[in-house]
Amino acid sequence: MAAALTNQLHALVNNMFATGLLDEQFQQLQMLQDSSAPDFVSEVVTLFCDDGERIIGELARQLDQPNVDFDRVDSFAHQLKGSSASVGAQQVKNTCIQFREFCQQRSRDGCLKTLDLVRTEFYDLRNKFQVMLQLEKQIQACYPKH
Amino acid sequence: MGDEYLAEPEDEVAPSMWPENIGDKHQKQFKMEKLGKGQDALKDVRFQEKPSSVDFQRLMELANSEKGVSQMQYFVKHWEYKRANTARLLKEQIGFLCQQRKEIEQKKQQILEEQHFQDESYYAVKRQVPILDEVYKDEWKRPSKKSDDLCHNQEIKIDAEYDSISYWKERAMQLEKTLEASFQRERSLEEKLEENIKNLQSHTPVEEFSGMLQRADYFLHLVLQSAPIVIAHQDTDLRYRFIFNHFPTLADEDVIGKTDYEILSGEGIEEMNNVKKEVMASGIPTKREFIFNTPLFGAKTFVTYIEPVFSKSGETIGVNYVAMDITDQVKRREKMADIRVREAVQKAKETELSRSLHITEETMRAKQMLATMSHEIRSPLSGVLSMAEILATTKLDKEQYQLLEVMLSSGDLVLQLINDILDLSKVESGAMKLESTTFRPREVVKHVLQTAAASLKKELTLEGCIGDDVPVEVTGDVLRIRQILTNLISNAVKFTHEGKVGINLHVLDKQPPGCRIEGGQLHMKAHSASSVTAAEHSSASPRNCDKDTLGCSNHEDACNTGIPPNNNFGEHDGGEEAVWLRCDVYDTGIGIPEKSLPLLFKRYMQASTDHARKYGGTGLGLAICKQLVELMGGTLNVVSKENEGSTFSFILPCKIPVKEDHSDDPDVMPSSHGDFTTSDIEGSFLFKPQARPCLLSSGVSVMNNKFIGCNLMSYHPPSILENHKLFSNGFASAEDNSANSTSTASCQSNGPSTRSTDEEQLDNAMVIDLNRQAESISSSQGGTTSVSGPNIHEEKGPCKVLEDKSLHKKSKCSPSSNKTKILLVEDNKVNIMVAKSMLEQLGHGIDIVNNGMQAIHAVQQCQYDIILMDVHMPEMDGLQATKFIRSFENTGCWDTSVKPEHDQMISSSALSSDCACIRKQGKRVPIIAMTANSFAESAEECLAAGMDSYISKPVNFQNIKECLQRYLPSQ
């Protein structure tokens, strides 16, 4: 049971690496998780997901306003970029870089288009993270029985 | 001469076109000679010019030349034609005159008859008598007609009454008068005619020629008057017979009859004369450019046409030449050529530049790639090696242990290679920072030799000689100096099979010429060079000179970038003295072929591929040494003779610390002062081959030996080992030699000896490092090198603790007294979480604040060992915060905008004496930027704001660990 789940988890994570969703920074997180901090990855990922959702909402709200404050938008994008870089969410990070370029150009259309992309990518990633955390929980749940 | 060419086409028009009055004006300047038609004709020619301008005797001779003859023939023909023409005209004139005469006779007759008739018939004649009117009307002789007309138009006025007797009388008398006048006119005309005829006869061809020539002369003169031309004729002896020079600098008298040599002197004369002679000899005209530089008319260029002149019989009788001043043109031409050359050079340069730019870019990229790759390889390798080391401490059987040993040594080799690459790229990219510590050069030399001796596998003598004038203590980056020395020594040992390897250290009595030390911080100290090395010293000094400028600039670099962490240093700048230390590492090895010398310090280059195969190694060692030496402001040179040995010499500027520095450091100084008489003053060391077995067999643990053995196999410079040891903070540090930890494990009880300040720790760490090594080997030597016991024990503490940690890399229970304090300034929650987790795993205490303002407050509250600062933050960004912190460190007071509340300050200093103490010293806290590598955050900006370095986000174990290793010196 646990082995199958573990395989599944590995397959999922490997797939996320292979498709470029994640980069080696995520491995750093995995390295940080040990007996002293058993839920570290989960904590970070959850924080990232919550934070990301908030920022994306914030971005959408900012861009919706008649006079877009691009500096503000940019600083939100910067935050999201920082967070995604820290957890190794490569795809989201790259899109954030793109997004910030549009911010620099003061291009609302560009920003909106990239925001859509970021959102799609972010939710896709979040779903996968959730599956991943789910699997981890299940695996951990399995262990005591063995 | 020359007129013959010009005269020919012109003579047809010349007579009618030439202005009559031009002759006088130009008479004097005009020196054109005249050619007669033949020898006889010339006798009669009237020369109007002064005879001095032309040699007329010569002219006779010239007339005999072929050209002269043809010229004469032409003149004769022309004269004959003219004479015939004149004769015809005269005949016509005579005809007319005859006719006129006839008519006049007729008229006279008629008038007489009429008179007679009128007398009788009293016929009144009112009609005027225009006697010659019909004749003159269409005649050619206009002027004379006019006067005649005047006569005839006179009214005949008669006062008497018409038809009276008196009237007719009067009239008869008047007519008589008219008739008389008419006769007179006739006579005068006849006279004129006769005169004309006479004139005609006196018009000889000679006169004609003279006139023609004169006119040609005038014409030529008009054409030539402003031409920068010299026309001349010279005879067979090259004496001037004629010269036309529009801008004469000499009177003609000075020229005619003389040669060029007699007139001029200087450049170009000889050449021109040679060409003239050549022309005369060959008989072929030529055109040449001559460059003259004579006192008479300065530097000028003439293009000269030289042609030979032949006599009738075909002999050469001289040369004509026409020279034109083209100095300006030549200048212009040269300028053009110059410009063209420059243009070409420029273009070539540009191409070269763009090519080298391209190459540089490529190289940079390749270097970056290499550095990145090395990084990438090092982190997993570190993991492998540390695991292997831990494995080595577990229970293993002999075979397993041997396998593990091989594994470790191979791993060390790879790690060493990677470290070399990283070192090199660090130095090259300017990221290498120098640490300034006080150290004892004698000990450094001794320890390097001891280390080499300990791992020696050959029958070699290792010796060290230190000049008496070398200060007991100097300030410099001891780790790098050791790295250099060790590298050179291990190289020397590697390539030496018998004989000796040694180090000479002495003070350079003269600072290298051209190397100025800024601000007078370093003073030259007048030490006499030790006698042992004086010869070498002088022999190598020319080489030093070559690189002085380089050394100088690097030195400034070093001073600018390297030293600052230790602020004591700065405070005592004024009182500090500096010396140039010269260190020679010599051997009696295989030497280096001369052709390989230039390649020696290049990366990945070895003297030959054979050597690489035979001796191994990467070829990076010397490149690193050179870079390091230059970074410290010195120079590294080599003198070598094949099969006799090599001497690598480097000179370094070192400051001599002021003794008072250490008066507040009671732990170290008293003991070291006490040692002065023993090991510190010791000027030479000798490690004989026979000492080796005893070294190995004595008290050092087997394991220790084995590890040293490994190091030797990999040519692992011990100083690098120590470098990492000192700075390692305990996480997966492969460099940590477990041997050392075991060997010092017994000292654990001395562990947490308290360190009041970082400054002290720095010093101690250095001393410990030296002492530890001294101890491990001196004990094996039977205590010949005396380092006082208590000293070792006291200072073993901190290093022990570190090593302890390295063994239990992930345990977070490191002693709190030694725990470094890190301030993390970051606003992103996720980033904070990750970074915090990493830092905690690395065993560091961490405070977290969310923006620059908070960071400043935190710094005001407490002393941190290092600050990791995000750049982009709300409220106050990292750059701004860094500037404030740096400003405080420099001036001792906070900018008003961020000034802490007064009581807070007091409480903080009261609370932690540590902080207060350190603050007094104005310690500079390392600030590391965490950059997102985006457009808004450039590394340059970070450094400019006062940050020490930067790590790119996202932070990972590798970059954070390296950064901490570098900037937490006591770790």
Automatic annotation (TrEMBL), chain A:
The record's annotation in Pfam families points to:
Hpt (PF01627)
Give the HPt domain ranges. 37-132
Q: Which InterPro entries does the UniProt record give?
A: AHP1-5/YPD1 (IPR045871), Sig_transdc_His_kin_Hpt_dom (IPR008207)
A GO biological process of this protein is: cytokinin-activated signaling pathway
Give yes or no: UniProt keyword Transferase. no
GO molecular function of the protein, one example? histidine phosphotransfer kinase activity
Superkingdom of this protein's organism: Eukaryota
Q: Where is the signal peptide?
A: none
Query: Which cellular component terms (GO) are annotated to the entry?
Result: cytosol; nucleus
In this chain, where does the modification Phosphohistidine occur? 78
Sorted alphabetically, the keyword list is:
Cytokinin signaling pathway, Cytoplasm, Nucleus, Phosphoprotein, Sensory transduction, Two-component regulatory system
UniProt keyword RNA-binding present:
no
- Indicate where this protein resides in the cell: Cytoplasm, Cytosol; Nucleus
Q: What is known of its domains?
A: Histidine-containing phosphotransfer domain (HPt) contains an active histidine that mediates the phosphotransfer.
Please explain the role this protein plays, according to its UniProt record.
Answer: Functions as a two-component phosphorelay mediators between cytokinin sensor histidine kinases and response regulators (B-type ARRs). Plays an important role in propagating cytokinin signal transduction through the multistep His-to-Asp phosphorelay. Functions as a positive regulator of the cytokinin signaling pathway. May play a regulatory role in salt and drought tolerance during plant development.
Q: How is this protein named in the record?
A: Histidine-containing phosphotransfer protein
Annotated source species: Zizania palustris
Q: What lineage, starting at the top, does this entry show? A: Eukaryota, Viridiplantae, Streptophyta, Embryophyta, Tracheophyta
Automatic annotation (TrEMBL), chain B:
* Residues covered by the Histidine kinase domain: 372-656
Composition skew (Polar residues), residue ranges? 738-755
Q: Which InterPro entries does the record cross-reference, listed alphabetically? A: HATPase_dom, His_kinase_dom, HisK_dim/P_dom, Sig_transdc_resp-reg_receiver
In this chain, the stretch annotated as Disordered covers 1-21, 738-760, 775-798
Compositionally biased spans, kind Acidic residues: 1-13
Tell me which EC number(s) this protein carries: 2.7.13.3
**Superkingdom of origin organism:** Eukaryota
Give the keywords, sorted.
Coiled coil, Kinase, Phosphoprotein, Transferase
Q: Which residues form the Response regulatory domain?
A: 821-968
Compositional bias segments (type: Low complexity): 776-789
Catalyses which reaction? ATP + protein L-histidine = ADP + protein N-phospho-L-histidine
Keyword Coiled coil applies: yes
Q: Which GO terms describe its molecular function?
A: histidine phosphotransfer kinase activity; phosphorelay sensor kinase activity
Q: Which Pfam families match?
A: HATPase_c, HisKA, Response_reg
Q: Which GO terms describe its cellular component?
A: plasma membrane
Instruction: Please give the residue positions where the record annotates the modification 4-aspartylphosphate.
Output: 870
What does this chain do?
A: Cytokinin receptor related to bacterial two-component regulators. Functions as a histidine kinase and transmits the stress signal to a downstream MAPK cascade.
The entry's protein name is: histidine kinase
The organism's taxonomic lineage, starting at the top: Eukaryota, Viridiplantae, Streptophyta, Embryophyta, Tracheophyta
